């Protein structure tokens, strides 16, 4: 500050004293370097996974069942199919429920009513509940207890669906909120009912945002391991899953590979990780495409 | 909203008032009500979920405390539920200690890096740089935790800790797990903090610049303090994520709960214990299995409290500037 008094009219052209400039640069530089740490970590992680996993990755790896005995013949067929089935079933569950909740909260709910505030608070809190606790819920209420579905694929999907429902709701609400009131008012003025307005005007306008949210939620769901451990996914399932059979999933297969003592299984874990990351990459590309292609500017 | 509701009341056109129209309007308003009911039912599912979580946890936890005195559970320093006979003990403190200890290590990594990244992105980065770095951080946030666990076990421990830094760590150790836990919560802390920094009005910055402050002074003495409640919310949210994280600790942290500060050896958190036990072959309904629910309930309460604190801080910083 003393420097400022000697050069009271310092502008961008006048250089500040060297000591101050150095401090400023050091500060900005260390901020930048710290930002790079996370990116560096990501880069090293991906390179490491590729190095360990690419050599075992083949069509056989994708189409073979897992094997505890002969690692060379082991594959992720049941895990991959399980994960793909989970994506579909979770989507079927979370899209209607998540969007309906978002529509209710944005278009119908009176925020001054205590029950609506409870619902909002609930969703906020649910988003913070650890995934392993959802696993306990799935075990106690879906696998056993009231629903008693057993350790089947649908039970796993419902558990994952409940886990990511808050994500869908939050994103869908934002998308619905982004549709300007003038669209609603125009529709209502033409004689449409409230629901017709929502169905024909608001939801189509909010669709890209909602789709992005659903894909985000799905990619979170298929990366989850802990809830599936609790619900009882079968790591060495040597059969194709059906909706009502026991099931395997990629994260569970990876966990089983990585906790094995033998080194070769660690490399198989890396191969399975590559498969999982490719699915996630595809899903996110679709989300980005949807966002760019259909995004509405009001 | 109020305006839209008002208009909705006049949803059907008044029209000529013929009998047909009137009937149509009633069936319409009935179906409108049904739809509203269905939507509300979907919204109520979230409340049912919470209730379900609480009941499922509480039921078995009460059963657990019928068999294990609650004092022994809460204050016991020895956690060994799977041991037979006299050495079996249910003191949860080692798990709670490990949970907070691991969270602490994670935050030690994530807080400086996350705050620095947030400040850089909000105050320094050019739009182009921000457009590259932000999505990359989002990718990092989207990496499944099982992948991070794999990385901690097969790379951080052998390559970074042992070979590069020469630290004598065991195969399963708290250090690798803690570091990766930090990387896990880094994007959360960075993005919530960046939101908080961006919410600070321009006028505050310009006022400080006008007084002759340098950029660093503006950032550290004006913007940062002004965003403090949002930053605290970011830290609490990050902590809450770390507390509930399961698979990283399960894969890289080992499975022997002990009250030890030693990071070169194994650490077991509450969430990791739950998953570990669920993977084992313990008969459901036994006291050993009921520990899942008791520990789960403890974990649930801890994250609920953390989340309530975070929500409080977020509200505070919204009130100030919005």
- Second-tier CATH architecture of the domain at 104-283 and 299-321 in chain B: Orthogonal Bundle
- Tell me what portion of residues of chain B adopts beta-strand conformation: under 5%
Strand arrangement within the widest β-sheet of chain B reads 1-2
Order of helices and strands of chain B: HHHEEHHHHHHHHHH
Unreliable residue stretches of chain B: 1-18
Instruction: Write down the domain tally of chain A.
Output: 2
Could you name the CATH topology of the largest domain in chain A?
A: MetI-like fold
Termini gap of chain B = 19 Å
Largest sheet of chain A: none
Compute the average pLDDT of chain B: 87
H/E series of chain A, N to C? HHHHHHHHHHHH
The CATH H-level homologous superfamily of the largest domain in chain A: MetI-like
User: By helix and strand content of chain A, what is the structural category?
Assistant: mainly alpha
Strand content of chain A: under 5%
What value does the Rg of chain B take, in angstroms?
Answer: 26 Å
What about the largest sheet of chain B?
2 strands, antiparallel
Identify the overall geometry of chain B.
globular
Q: Tell me the number of helical segments of chain A per DSSP (H or I, 4 or more residues long).
A: 12
Account of the 3D structure:
The complex is a heterodimer of chains A (298) and B (322). Chain A is mainly α. Chain A folds into 2 domains: 17-56; 60-294, MetI-like (MetI-like fold). Helices cover 72% and strands 0% of the residues of chain A. Chain A is globular and about 70 Å long. Mean pLDDT of chain A is 89; it is low at 1-5. By secondary structure, chain B is mainly alpha-helical. Chain B has a domain at 104-283 and 299-321: MetI-like (MetI-like fold), CATH 1.10.3720. Chain B is globular, with a radius of gyration of 26 Å. Residues 1-18 of chain B have low confidence and may be disordered. The interface between A and B is large, with 94 and 93 residues.
Topology:
The complex is a heterodimer of chains A (298) and B (322).
Chain A: H1 2-6, H2 18-53, H3 59-63, H4 77-108, H5 114-126, H6 131-143, H7 153-178, H8 181-189, H9 194-223, H10 226-231, H11 250-258, H12 263-294
Helix pairs in contact in A: 2-12, 4-7, 4-9, 4-11, 6-7, 7-9, 8-9, 9-12, 11-12
Chain B: H1 2-9, H2 19-67, H3 70-75, E1 79-80, E2 89-90, H4 93-124, H5 127-142, H6 145-164, H7 174-198, H8 202-210, H9 215-226, H10 228-244, H11 247-252, H12 270-279, H13 287-321
Antiparallel strand pairs in B: 1-2
Helix pairs in contact in B: 2-13, 4-7, 4-10, 5-7, 6-7, 7-10, 8-9, 10-13, 12-13
């Amino acid at each position: 500050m003393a420097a400022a008094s000697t050069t009271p009219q310092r502008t961008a052209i006048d250089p500040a004293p060297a000591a101050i400039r150095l401090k400023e640069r050091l500060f900005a530089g260390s901020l930048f370097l710290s930002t790079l740490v996370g990116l560096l970590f990501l880069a090293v992680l991906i390179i490491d996974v590729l190095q360990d996993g690419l050599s075992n990755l083949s069509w056989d790896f994708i189409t073979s069942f897992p094997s505890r005995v002969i690692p060379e013949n082991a594959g992720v067929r049941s895990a991959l199919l399980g994960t793909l089935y989970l994506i579909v079933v979770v989507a079927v569950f979370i899209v209607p429920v998540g969007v309906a909740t978002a529509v209710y909260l944005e278009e119908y709910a009176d925020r001054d009513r205590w029950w609506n505030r409870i619902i909002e608070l609930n969703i906020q809190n649910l988003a913070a509940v650890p995934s392993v606790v959802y696993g306990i819920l799935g075990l106690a209420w879906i696998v056993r207890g009231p629903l008693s579905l057993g350790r089947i694929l649908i039970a796993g999907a419902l558990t994952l669906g409940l886990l990511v429902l808050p994500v869908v709701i939050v994103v869908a609400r934002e998308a619905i909120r982004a549709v300007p009131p003038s669209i609603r008012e125009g529709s209502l003025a033409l004689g449409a009912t409230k629901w017709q307005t929502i169905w024909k005007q608001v939801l189509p306008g909010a669709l890209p945002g909602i789709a992005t949210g659903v894909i985000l939620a799905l990619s979170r769901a298929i990366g989850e391991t802990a809830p599936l451990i609790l619900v009882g996914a079968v790591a060495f399932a040597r059969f194709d899953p059906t909706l009502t059979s026991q099931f395997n999933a990629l994260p569970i297969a990876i966990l089983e590979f990585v906790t094995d003592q033998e080194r070769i299984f660690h490399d198989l874990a890396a191969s399975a990780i590559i498969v999982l990351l490719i699915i996630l990459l595809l899903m996110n590309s679709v989300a980005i495409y949807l966002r760019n292609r259909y995004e509405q500017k009001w | 909203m109020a305006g839209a509701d008002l208009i909705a009341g006049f949803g059907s056109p008044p029209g000529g008032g013929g009998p047909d129209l009137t009937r149509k309007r009633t069936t319409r308003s009935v179906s409108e009500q049904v739809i509203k009911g269905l939507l509300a039912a979907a919204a109520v599912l979230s409340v049912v979920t919470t209730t379900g979580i609480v009941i499922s946890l509480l039921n078995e936890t009460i059963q657990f405390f019928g068999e294990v005195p609650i004092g022994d559970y809460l204050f016991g320093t020895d956690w060994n539920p799977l041991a037979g006979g006299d050495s079996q003990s249910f003191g949860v403190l080692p798990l709670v200690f490990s949970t907070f200890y691991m969270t602490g290590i994670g935050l030690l990594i994530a807080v400086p890096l996350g705050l620095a990244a947030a400040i850089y992105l909000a105050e320094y980065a050019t739009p182009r740089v921000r457009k590259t770095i932000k999505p990359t951080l989002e990718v990092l946030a989207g990496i499944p935790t099982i992948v991070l666990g794999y990385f901690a076990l097969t790379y951080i421990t052998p390559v970074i800790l042992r070979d590069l830094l020469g630290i004598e760590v065991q195969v399963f150790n708290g250090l690798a797990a803690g570091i990766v836990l930090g990387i896990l919560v880094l994007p959360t802390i960075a993005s919530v903090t960046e939101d908080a920094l961006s919410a600070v009005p321009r006028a505050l910055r310009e006022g400080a610049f006008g007084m002759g402050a340098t950029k660093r002074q503006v950032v550290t003495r004006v913007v940062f303090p002004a965003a403090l409640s949002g930053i605290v919310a970011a830290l609490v949210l990050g902590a809450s994520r770390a507390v509930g994280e399961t698979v990283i600790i399960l894969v890289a942290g080992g499975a022997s709960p002990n009250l030890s500060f030693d990071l070169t050896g194994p650490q077991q958190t509450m969430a990791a214990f739950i998953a570990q036990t669920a993977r084992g072959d313990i008969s459901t309904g036994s006291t050993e299995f009921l520990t899942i629910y008791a520990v789960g309930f403890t974990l649930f309460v801890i994250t609920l409290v953390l989340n309530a604190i975070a929500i409080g801080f977020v509200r505070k910083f919204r009130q100030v500037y919005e």
